[in-house]
Amino acid sequence: MNPKVILALIVIGTLVSCEPPQPESQPAQEQVSAIRKGMIKVTIMYPSSDTSRFDMDYYSTKHMPMVARLLGDSLKTLGIDKGIAGGAPDAPLPYMAIGYLYFDRLSAYQNSIAPHVDEIRSDFPNYTNVRPVILVSEVIE
Questions:
Q1: Closest CA to 68 of 35, 101, 38, 99
Q2: Spatial CB neighbours of 46, under 8 Å, sequence gap ≥ 6
Q3: What's the CATH number for 27-138?
Q4: pTM for the full predicted model
Q5: Most buried residue among 19, 24, 71, 134 by CB atoms closer than 10 A?
């Protein structure tokens, strides 16, 4: 093979291998990296029963975006889980859905939610007929 061709291939190969990697869209990883030790996590659990109703589409496309808008910059990230099974074979589903809200400090949660509690609660009948169980906790890991 011609030495000039070999040299040209080496130069092209070097240039291509030195090109910076193209960014990939990975919102799940970005969301996970936004969750840090010491953050406040508000977990909203919707218990399941024979008579319970839950509209996941409404919850994920209307309710949670509304909550995010109302809480503003105090809300750092959020998450939604859809219940699919109990923990043991044939165990009843304990929760139809679970929502998560993350804040830097407890005061950030309290101050941002207080003026909007009534508006948020008034939206419940649009997607569920159950009262959620709410847990406020600190992220350890």
A1: 101
A2: 52, 54, 95, 96, 97, 98, 128, 130, 132, 133
A3: 3.30.70.100
A4: 0.76
A5: 71
